[in-house]
Amino acid sequence: xxQPAIKDQILKDLDQLSPEQQTRAAExxxxxxxxxxxxxxxxxxxxxxxxLDDESAREMMKAIEEGCERVDLDEVxxxxxxxxxxxxxx
Length: 90
Known about the structure:
The chain has helices spanning 4-15, 19-33, 42-45, 54-67; strands spanning 70-76, 83-86. By secondary structure, the protein is an alpha+beta fold. It has a two-stranded antiparallel ribbon with strand order 1-2.
């Protein structure tokens, strides 16, 4: 149930935002109410244990370190709250 005072404040604040900011706010709210898809269980992933040799594992870790976990300060993350931190292909 929506609390009237909170709803009123949100609508008041929303009126002061640009159309782009309103879109971002709508995406944030939608993200809060949408459930995340379920991932694979640890038990399901056990099937893959030992499938990489040491050299392949090192190469994969190096590629991840070099190409991922970059911060784009101009992009909002999926939570709508801050910079997007995600894997980016170069």
